[in-house]
Amino acid sequence: MQQNICKISKIGIPRAMSYYHNYPFYHGFFKELGIEIVLSDKTTSKLINEGTKHVVSETCLPIKVFVGHVINLLDKGITNIFIPSIQSIDYKINNCSKIRGLPEIIRNVIDRPFNMIEPTLDKTEKIGFYDFWNYTANAVGVTDKKLIKKAIDAGWEKYDNFLEMTKLGISYQTALENALNGVFENRHLQSVKPLSVVIMAHGYNLFDERISLNLIKKLEKMNVKVYTALNVSKENSIKSIHELGELMYWANEADLTGAAAYYLLNNKVDGIIAISAFGCGPDSLMVDEISYHAKKANMPMMNLTIDEHTGEAGFVTRLDAFIDMLVRKKRKETLIKTKINSISENEQKTEEKRLGFSNLH
Ligand code: SF4
Q1: Is 206 near ligand 1, meaning CB less than 6 Å away?
Q2: Model's pTM, two decimal places?
């Protein structure tokens, strides 16, 4: 039997970028290999400032944040850090150049010695999941094929449970904690609230509470039901993009355009909130696409552009104004429907005209 020598006992994982979507997999995989995971601390303004100092100012906020997390791990004395290069997730479905070149960015901006575990996923070039995880295992000193397979299975199990729970309506944080602890909650959460919105955003912007300035919690406090890409199956997201007549090019397109398109086409929400990073090319294209279709469908949409200077006060003012507008719009529509149902066809037309109904559609 092949002997495994696990050369690495600890691995650092930056709490940024792919962490927000893939951490259940990373957790299952490394734990099965018997490797301790050390996460960087949660994002703070100090950590963002640290990352910002190392890159040119035009760099998007998530990359500045990622750099800050790597520095945070180095400050904790971690010398093996997992920094994947996720090039394409399907044939010609690509990530942006910054995500593709993440290891290169870090190598060039952080001048401190450490060992980077930098597997590549590039389905366009036929470098798939097995190659990605096999490389990772070898890089941490594990070569036993059976153990690698077992670790991949453990990763999938946690990842699938996490996704399944979020589809049932369980919050991101609870689903994550449950998945990491090996708990599966099989209960549908269908809370009914007077207003609902879908948030169109990368997981690394939305679920990082400092970057999103706690957007989900703020909306929930306003009694607004929040939907995200995690509540829609990948099949439905992709189908919705095609139904809008759009094409998929970006790796995050299913999560952003797809989720917004699904709720828009099914008329399931009262509004769309997009969070996009200042200077992000893919975000601006995807937000423009959805804005166009939202306008055609008379669905209100707000785009919050974020960078390291985004302040809480301006953010909350815009959010309050948007939600207030949704409430007024919904009240008006409800009033119109109530009146229209109780009058004749001629009276209905007159009433529609008087209330400006035609302006709403
Ligand atoms: S997709 Fe946009 S926000 Fe994300 S890393 Fe690339 S440029 Fe930055």
Answers
A1: no
A2: 0.89
